[in-house]
Amino acid sequence: MSTGGRSQGRRKAGMDTGDGCRGDQGATLHAVSSAVLAVTRHLSVHEVLQVIVRAAAQLLDARYAALGVPDDEGSFAEFVVEGVSDEEWERIGPLPRQHGMLAAMLHGATAKRLGDIRKEPEFEGWPVAHPVLKDFLGVPIRDGEDVLGIIFLANKRRPGGFTQDDEDLLSLFAAHAAIAITNARLYEHNRELTVVAERNRLARELHDAVAQKLFSLRLTARTASALAERDPVRTVRELEQVERLAAEALAELRAVIFELRPADLADGLVASLRKHVEVLDRAHETSVRISADEAVVLPEEHETVAFRITQEALYNALRHAGARSVEVRLGTEDARAVLEVADDGAGFDASDTEPQGGLGLASMRDRAYSIGGELTIDAAPGKGTTVRLEVPL
């Protein structure tokens, strides 16, 4: 942004211009910082792209903004816009392909600033319903040599169009946006890996718990059949064993199926936790209780992570700890939401980062870290376990 007018005025008044320049730079850095923080609060790639576009438009005071993500075929895999309503976008038609100024930038991948895009040779193939564009600024979002996306701005609200200072500012913002996009992609990839790991764990549970019980059930039934005529008393005992094994297998299967069901957090974290605890309390001999502050509300992504960590901690307490009672506690402490799952079970050596048998501690810590939270484990052999999640409010 040019500060010539203000600086000249200060010189005429015999004032030092250094503080003014630093003030303008400070205001610019504050604007960039606010925009970057707005982007990095989000974790899903699509949300990050939307916030980048919105922040860029606000930062440069542009009427229209867009962000195109290139695909492997020389076109756009995704195209997010700001300043165009859903109805207008529907009238415009399908995503832009390999033509026009957008395609020129896609292949050139260099910054481009134009006083009037309509006068450029590349300005062609624009739909009739497309908004009228004039001044234009496009900047690539790079990660090394890779182009993650391109930010397009058009129609600066203030007269005069985009300046070199605007281009420098958007380039600075694009460098930070690249970090946010890369981080979001890594987070989604990690979440996909977590889903695969969870499916593998459940498959092992089905095999180790249910399949083995069904195998024992089959052998016991055969024994009862063989003894039916010559030893009726023992046959009765074997059939009682069949009944017990069938009930245990059914309980195990129900528990696994319950874990496969996606968490429904439509009613909020507290209500979902209460429902989950109630079901587990009915399904297991262990007493499962919850004490929660109804006022605790977290962002949707944070609530999902908190719920999954609670599920994992409860699973460990019920399947591995041999606990008689488990309590879930949710409240606030020093501007942080605090969620605890405490059991009176066998415990383990907390210095062991991943105890034998695998309790998913690393997965829980990764989930907590992904939302800026902190996970601690308080455990000792024979003294139970407390899993504690702290998340900034």
Folded structure, characterized:
The chain is α+β, with helices and mostly antiparallel strands and 393 residues long. The protein has ten helices and ten strands. It has helices spanning 4-12, 18-40, 45-60, 86-92, 100-108, 164-227, 232-260, 269-283, 300-319, 361-370; strands at residues 62-70, 76-82, 112-114, 136-143, 146-156, 287-292, 325-332, 336-343, 374-379, 385-392. Helix 2 (18-40) packs parallel to helix 6 and helix 3 (45-60) packs antiparallel against helix 6. The longest helix has 64 residues, at 164-227. The chain starts with a helix and ends with a strand.
Salient structural properties:
single chain; about 400 residues; alpha+beta; 5-stranded antiparallel β-sheet; 5-stranded mixed β-sheet; 10 helices; 10 strands; about 50% helix; disordered N terminus
How many helices? The count is: 10
Gyration radius (Cα, Å) is 30 Å
What's the overall geometry? Answer: elongated
N-end to C-end Cα span:
36 Å
Secondary-structure content class: alpha+beta
Helix content: 40-55%
* Secondary-structure element order, N to C: HHHEEHHEEEHHHEHEEHEE
Sequence stretches where pLDDT stays below 50 over 5 or more residues: 1-23
- Which sequence of strands runs across the widest sheet? 2-1-5-4-3
